[in-house]
Amino acid sequence: MAGLESSETLVAAVVPHVVFAAYPGFTALDLVGPHEVLARTPATCSIAAARLAPVSSDRGLTLMPHLAFADCSEVDVLVVPGGPGQTAAMEDAELLAFLRSSAQRASIVAGVCTGVLLLAAAGPARGRRASTHWLATEELARLGGVPTGERLTRDGTLYTCAGVSAGIDLAIVLARDLFGAEEARRITLAMEYDPTPPFDVGSVRKASPSLIEALRATSRFHGAGRSAGCV
Known about the structure:
Elements: E1 17-21, H1 28-38, E2 44-49, E3 55-56, E4 62-63, E5 67-68, E6 77-80, H2 86-89, H3 93-105, E7 108-112, H4 115-122, E8 129-130, H5 137-142, E9 146-147, E10 152-155, E11 158-161, H6 166-179, H7 181-190, H8 209-218, H9 225-228
Parallel strand pairs: 1-2, 1-6, 2-5, 6-7, 7-11, 8-9
Antiparallel strand pairs: 3-4, 10-11
Helix pairs in contact: 1-6, 3-4, 6-7
């Protein structure tokens, strides 16, 4: 966990507004996982999107945003999920402008999975150490980020993590840094967050070469997956 071992509380005596940026084709757990954690804190949590209309994830989960980008003036913590829709979102000028302006106002900017690529495209992750999905590390470097290969990375006020499930870990770290370690411990126990995966292959450090190559072959960042839109 690069730079995440310990930290002083960043926001004191203030109820922070955590804003989750939603766009078509986001991965549900990238947003819902961190939201589940941070909504258990004293923070105010809102989902923002281009319009006040349902936004669908890549797997068909539909969310109704609380705010339109144009009406979201107060952002203390910005959380950006990834997902297959990130590819098209890289050309979404309205989304990128929202990320750029929100990052300038926020005390903390956080990217989950390939949401970190959007932060690189918008500017906040350029030239900074960051984590992302293992299949997207080369793309992050191409966009000007500095991939660490870690599950979690903090570079100043930029918090980033690896793929999908890592967003829960990241949000627990954010809860710690915003509200203290005891609050983060309380949430961890309340959620019974004690992973024991049935198949301990959830990292390239643990998976077999054949499994890694099979996923790489279907990735939108490598090989045939470029046209398939897979992670």
